[in-house]
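User: My collaborator sent over this chain with a note saying "see what the structure looks like." That's all I know about it. Can you take a look?
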Amino acid sequence: MVHDLRSGRLPRPQYEDSGYPVGDHALIIRTPNPLAPDTSELVIIAGCFEHGTEAAAEKLGDRTFLRRIRRMKHFEALVETTVVNGAHYNTKLVETRRIPAG
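Assistant: Without extra context I'll predict from the sequence alone. Here is the result:
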């Protein structure tokens, strides 16, 4: 589950009645490295489960996504994906936010 403190939303994985996943969420975060903030950055990819993590990692190769974040040095992005027969499809960017310098 992802807890959005700004909006209060709680996007969480969805499941069939049988317990199989049908949807997942993930975060992509690009931020300064706290151990070397002047010289390096971190990219964090974290899904609720493996489907969201894989979908978010693939999103980093999506030209449309890359154009959208081009002007944001540091950002957080929420993605959601549909899960069918254990594989993710139709990954969508839900929201992107700039992380202010500081």
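A starting point for your reply to your collaborator: The first strand starts at residue 14 and ends at 15.
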